[in-house]
Write a structure and sequence with these properties.
Six copies of one chain form a homohexamer.
Chain A (H helix, E strand, L loop, with lengths): L20 E6 L14 H8 L6 E2 L4 E2 H4 L2 E6 L7 H17 L3 E6 L6 H10 L4 E5 L19 H9 L4 E6 L4 H10 L1 E4 L5 H8 L3 E7 L21 H10 L4 E8 L10 H17 L2
Parallel strand pairs in A: 1-4, 1-5, 5-10, 6-7, 6-9, 7-8, 9-10
Antiparallel strand pairs in A: 2-3
Helix pairs in contact in A: 1-9, 3-4, 4-5, 8-9
Chain lengths: ~280, ~280, ~280, ~280, ~280, ~280
């Protein structure tokens, strides 16, 4: 008798019970103001993940042996309904968190990040956020939409308050956003300078890690909605992630891959490798 | 002194005052359930329209001489907020209609059609709709969203009631939609059979014409969100449009071109030519 | 607790026990002489199948209600080793056939067809083959490789002997192949003329149906390794398949979609719709 | 000892001395007003020609046995210098014609056609032209450039005078061009109606055959600079060419394939097959 | 009443009278020897410019507040007629210069640069040129065409004489060009070494700045006609431009983006960001 | 009389007799496990090589004057038959080697490298291999296929034994491969550290140089079957090659370009430039 066709990110084939991490896809891009398509990211990442190895020569660890990940597939989200979609993501996160596991969301657009941050902030009132991105994402609203992907870090600030968000790699935004940031969050322009000090301060605290892949230079990752020149290299990002290994990470997301603008497939290959490094870095 | 850079669909450069038709773009695709990208249609159609001629050898008429069209550019719509976007489209339509001109909307996704139908039905209580499409678009809702592009003809029926909608070319939908249609609208499967009789019945009445470009076979128009094999040819569509010339058309839309899936540019060229034929057919 | 991520062709989610058909993917293209890439077909077909409806307005039947199909996922085939791959496909077919179910292989390149034909000919010594294709596929070998996709119908003839193969739509091949065909198989050039008579003759006999999607015109299905102008339309193919409904079909394959040459996605959408029509046509 | 790498259109590998036809590429597109790229046609056609068969099942003839063609490679043309490029093409044609062979030019943009027509009209003062195209190409000039591809048939008329040009399939142009044509050339709109009568009239006379591939519908041949909906099918074109077999063809060109807009490769495959049919039709 | 559709580069919407800079597009690529398509650059740059921010975090300046730019749209240039096109560009430049404004040309191919240099050298006899490029562009002619894009810097030298041209980033050319350069211009291979000294020398003099975007590495900007590996990074280019801020810039061009080879859109995004930085750097 | 159409890599047009190097193409990719397409590399490299210059400003040498290369065109290899294809490549290499010339193979997939290594090891029993690659390629077999491209360096080790292979740039592979490598070959992870010492050791010995182009970062060379982030830059690779100039190179290959994933053409341009640098570096 033949078996059902189970599809996962490579080597993320543990059972739900034994899993430390629960990875799932959030195919949603309705508020994307420039070029949509991040809805295709999680599906493409799964199938292309079989082009990378499970072993990391950087960390000398292997997804098969050193990580326990359950891949729950994709949520079926309601296009065009931001508010209800955020509720759907909250429900998903709540299940995983209440089972004592770490949620790993594969976006989809960045706006979704406020949902797991909301859920986790209820469990961990002292939650902090590490944020790697090209864009500030600090608009109060975008054309009147408060749930736009251009407003997501502002929404996280609504939840967490001043001083809890630590942004790195930021190189694009409105003038007002950069000036507002100076008083309300920690914002490092262009690169990862100061990351070690931040890690030192956050040790022991619960931390959510949100990665907008467009922090990478578009030469490394052209497949994203709003390519923004002047970004970090793959090795800089990989090294920055490895520095987070001593933190108490309680939730993760990897957002904004847009595969239809990735004609060579190399952006997706980068995303897969970064996800592997993240899972191996934070596995215990 | 140099002039400002005015950009229009080819030869649609009349003043607002002298115009019979007002064309505008509605770049919105947030409820699109499969592949987004119709937001790029109106901009691409304008720039590529300079690849076609203003003269139609089919009709022996020329956009320069035989049509008075003002191109108002694109609306700036709020991604991810269907309900508010429909309000924006209603406002635009209301201005044009109150000035005694005929609105011509270039989509964008099909969900927007309910907005001008709503506005026009207030001015013309006996409004009828001619609908060319591959899909029924008759779902009550799609994953709970009543304003989805898969529900737009159902929303028009909410406004107009039984017997006022005349669909042609339909070749895809849920079983329930096809069965529901039998009792509430006129639905011609696969082709334009019966169009002449319909036109005969509708003479003198105010008619809205909504064209979902995916009524064309994907070999003719691959650049659309949900390509659906078994469609009509360019000549069949062109000929069907010409049959509508005796109707009292009070509003028009041309929807669902998705240029990023049109790598050869031929889908956009088809859309431009169809828009030219529509404008020349209905110009007085 | 969350469920595993099961992935199937749309609505092919029955259990193995209750299934009448077992569908699986055969991602192999190592002998392809011109442009490879059919290895990507089965995976792409599954994910894109959610863009079509489960209901066929042509047949008034629905995959959810009227077909019992189990999707077994993809075989993991050994690239570069034709002979061993054919063994792998034979094993898969043998399991399904011995369980009294009908195998439905999604290629991959056409060379694989000889494997299920071999297995089924042992169970059904009077097996006949209906073959829709653009190409003769009757070379004794291709550069010395007898298992090339250009030789597959010749290999089927080795198994079945004269008069058992019925080819339609053929419009490309070497001169020798066309002349050889006249004495050994039934070959209809360019179209489906004579299909009804063939069906009449084959009634009651066990029949294998092999569909090389390049029988379609490249305007309908550009996404294939060797596009061959002058092919049949979607409606001609759909109608030809419906004519086979009275046959005793014991095995099926649908081969040679090459998604990386299908930039608009319309070839894959055609393939999905054809597979739906095939499953609904042959379901009892 | 290894041989040099000779590259030809498939089976066009005869010596110059024994050849009846001399085929060459003219990679030039500097006057193209919309989308350039036909410069890539001849190179791409040669390499992709190995994807078709040498045998035509339509004509039961084979390029290996039934045609004697020498492929002279590509001319190196001076981009941006229309007048000098036309001189280069005239020189090439003159060599071939003076050696009693038939020139077969693979474009490149259509503007080049006036060069071989000029050369051949000197040898054959009663030269007639058969012209298949989507566009009239009858502008006196395009933005002041008399050698534009939009003016090429007007330039041929300058050479040949009234009544010598026979255009078919025309479906795009300025109003003035269509009206001018009525008095000076034979112009059949949209299709090949009347071709048989034309062939009857031209029997015995020297005829130049110029084929702008955009006469085909863009669904068949999207890879061209100015796709123009409403064109002929592959079978209609193939059949029209076969009707020309009784004419005394003294020169041929096949123009306006633009491979970079042909992402699936099917446009190039169509062009290759049409060239095969042309060579086999006119071979003696 | 609705307004006309004015289209500009983002925030370049000042009136002609108040503008300090006049930006316009020069869609011409007829002499391009390898891959054409720069004709599409200016149109694409305008529409994609809405994907970047008006604010530069590098310069802490904003296009809305800190720059006065009028966008005059595109010139309609005569394809295939280099000499006449250069006259058209000269006329455009002369208008702007005589109105005391700074011309900013968006190419188009590099050959056009000699036109504004010619016009400006008449007003400023001591004009110097800063030239960033991958290629020497110093051929006397290319296949006999003196106005080719491969000869443009040689043409500028014809106008300006020895020692007035300062090239940086050069990594490709004929041997003779590199040797000739040693005696007639300042040419820095591969990078921007020595730029500060050059700026020091040129202070107070009128300077034309011509930027061939292929000075960037193809990983940063693949969308160009002749990608040339080994180029500078985005940050290196941005920093080099900022060093020019103290110069008396009297004319600017940004050339050779070819959007049809930029499938991810990231090359265009880079070009937009560079144009923003240039406008903000040189605004007073 | 016109000449035959000889096609070579730019300036590789010497006669076989006078040549020091013999370059040929090996279009084979049947064992490629992820994305095929390297079969298209050699043909594309030849035609695109005319976009680069023959002169290297890095080496101040020119292909026309400083290198004697004969281009023998492509082998016609048997798809799907690894073992026989390796025999074909061995035969080709043997001819060239026996004529005292240096073979330069343009792949095609990396599996072919074992063929020239086998031939050369018979002539030079003390042969060493310099190997630049992203991947270990040290699997004993891949799904049972010992001749897979994932096993090629293991096959070379079968021939040469311990300590003769020197791998650089390796950043992907199975854990077992990395551990096995420690005892049997020299493997430098990620970069070219230690290359100078290796060169010092190998001076005077016969050395085969095999370059898998995916050693480059995918931002530089996206057009390859398995893009692997974190690679070397163009300048790092170019500099590493220049360091090899003092070695006694007896054979060369350049493998794994996959042009159909190189939509901008920049990967092919990189490959051409690297081949030029290699030929100029090793020419005497």
């Amino acid at each position: 008798m033949l078996k059902e066709n189970r599809v996962t990110f490579i080597a993320c084939d543990k059972t739900y019970e034994e899993a430390e991490f629960v990875l799932w896809g959030a195919p949603f891009d309705s508020t994307t103001s420039f070029r949509p398509g991040t809805r295709f990211a999680s599906g493409t990442i799964r199938s292309e993940s079989f082009g990378i190895e499970t072993y990391s020569p950087y960390l000398d660890k292997d997804l098969n042996e050193d990580a326990k990940v359950f891949d729950a597939g994709d949520l079926e989200l309601i296009f065009g309904e931001s508010v209800r979609v955020l509720e759907q993501v909250k429900e998903m996160t709540a299940i995983i968190v209440s089972d004592g596991k770490i949620p790993v969301m594969i976006g989809g657009e960045h706006s979704l990040t406020s949902a797991p941050v909301h859920v986790l902030s209820e469990k961990f009132p002292d939650l902090e956020v590490i944020h790697f991105d090209a864009h500030t994402d600090l608009r109060e609203d975008y054309l009147g939409n408060r749930w736009s992907h251009a407003s997501v870090i502002k929404r996280c600030h609504d939840i967490l308050g001043d001083g809890k968000i630590h942004s790195f790699g930021i190189r694009s935004g409105e003038k007002e956003e950069f000036y507002w940031a100076k008083e309300h969050i920690h914002l490092q322009r262009f690169n990862f300078d100061g990351l070690e000090e931040t890690v030192e301060c956050l040790k022991g605290k619960p931390v959510y890690f949100t990665l907008d892949l467009d922090v990478l230079d578009p030469s490394i990752l052209p497949g994203t909605g709003t390519p923004e020149a002047g970004g970090v290299t793959f090795d800089e990002l990989r090294f920055a992630i490895s520095k987070l290994s001593e933190l108490n990470i309680v939730g993760i997301d990897v957002m904004e891959l847009s595969p239809h603008y990735d004609h060579s497939g190399s952006s997706t290959a980068v995303a897969c490798k970064i996800i592997r490094e993240i899972l191996l870095t934070f596995s215990k």
